[in-house]
Every structure is written in C-alpha cells, then in structure tokens.
UniProtKB/TrEMBL annotation:
Keywords on record: Metal-binding, Signal
Provenance organism: Rhizobium johnstonii (strain DSM 114642 / LMG 32736 / 3841) (Rhizobium leguminosarum bv. viciae)
Name used for this protein in its record: Substrate-binding periplasmic protein
Cited NCBIfam families: modA
GO molecular function: metal ion binding; molybdate ion binding
Keyword set includes NADP: no
InterPro entries: ModA, ModA/WtpA
Family per similarity comment: Belongs to the bacterial solute-binding protein ModA family.
Listed GO biological process terms: molybdate ion transport
Signal peptide: none
Matching Pfam families: SBP_bac_11
Amino acid sequence: MDRMDRSERSSAMTQEIRLFGAIAVRPAVLALISQFETDTGFTVAVKWELNPVVKKQIEAGEPFDLVITNPNLVEDLAVLGKVKAGSEVAFGRIAMGVAAKAGGRPLDIGSVEAFKHALKSARSIAYASEGTSGGYFSGLLERLGIADEVKPKLVAISGGQTAPAVGRGEAELGVVPVTSILAAAPEVMLVGRFPAELQSYIDFAIGISADSTDAEAARQLSEFLTSTAVDDILAAKGVERHQRAGVTLKRASS
C-alpha cells in the first residue's frame, strides 16, 4: 500500500470507516486494523455481532461502510440494495474446532469415532446457540445419531462467548470456530479441529455499503483485508484462504 504524503494523511485522519463484522472474524481482523490505520491514516470504527444479527441490523438501517459476514448474507444484502453490487469479494473460511480449559487432559478427536466418544464422555459442552456454528453442530449431532445422548449436556452460550465460557469453567468442552478458541488463549486451548469427514468451514465475504460515506476508503480497506500481504497473519488467527480472497463472488441466479 502506498503511503500518503502529509497533506493527504491530514485529510484522511478526519475520515472514519465503519466496519461491521461477524464475531467469528473479530480476532483475525482486529490484528490487522492498526496496520491499515498506520498505512493510510484512516480510522476504523468496528462493530461485531453474530452473522444473522449483522444482516438483521443492516436491513433495519444500521449504517456501515464495509461488512464481513457469510457470503449468502452479503449477497442477500446486495439484492436488497444495502451492499453495492459488484463489491462482494471472498475473505476466507474458518474451521470448526473443540475447545477445552487450558491444562486439561489430552483428548483424541482425530477420527469420527473418537470425536463421538469425546462428546458422549464430556460432562458438558458449550456451543453458540444463535450463530452459524451452533446450527451446524446441532444438525451434526442428529447426523451422527448421538443427539439424544449429547443434547442434555449442551450449554447454550450467546453473544460469541462460547470459548471464554469454557475458560471460566462453565462447560468442560466448547464447540466453536477455531478463531474464537485461539483468541481465548491462554485460558482456553484448542483440542483440535473437527475430523475432516465432519468438518464444516464457515465462509466469509466482504461487501461495501451502497450508501458508504466514503466508498473509496471502504474499497481500500477491502483490498487490504483480501491482499496476500496479510495471509500469514490471518492464518495464525485461524482464517484460511481456501478461495483466493479478493475474487469477486459469483451471484447465484434467482
């Protein structure tokens, strides 16, 4: 990113980019914001909610310049005229993982049978009751045929606090996106990712507001977040670039 001269920087310092994103990407994106602000002089104001809440609040009129949420929700917002058509780009994906309190006993979840055994043996399991990950996990229990045995042990956690709840001892295990587990260290440890056969990656995309107060600044932030320069930082925080970020999403036909 080219650095601005002093006059350009002075002007940019008065500008604020409103970033509205899903809680699951918060740890990864926050690790990048200060670099972007230093390089450009812009200020980034952030707000985080669960994926369905992001869409609902934007539909209700929540002002934003840039949004990061599930691709289908970004597309829905584009159809509604909330996101600028053609601004949608892939950001990355996050794997599902299992969390435990740091210092706990080693746990094998490397195979489907080991994963099922770990869930059935746990005293309690925290999950995101309102988020994308929680919906997938509930369906997975049914698919594995262990719903009746495991569901009485489930502890519903709201507001993106699933991993911290494990750290506080409110549940023995937690099922949540890997980014949230890594961000909760050192109180919480990542037991492991779901077995490959059961893994469900949560995809994220970026869209620019159709009513942005500074679409050019929002575009710069979008390009920064999808650039190869930040891939390693995102990977360390749990975001994978399975689809080359920066590629325009293909809109599904109606």
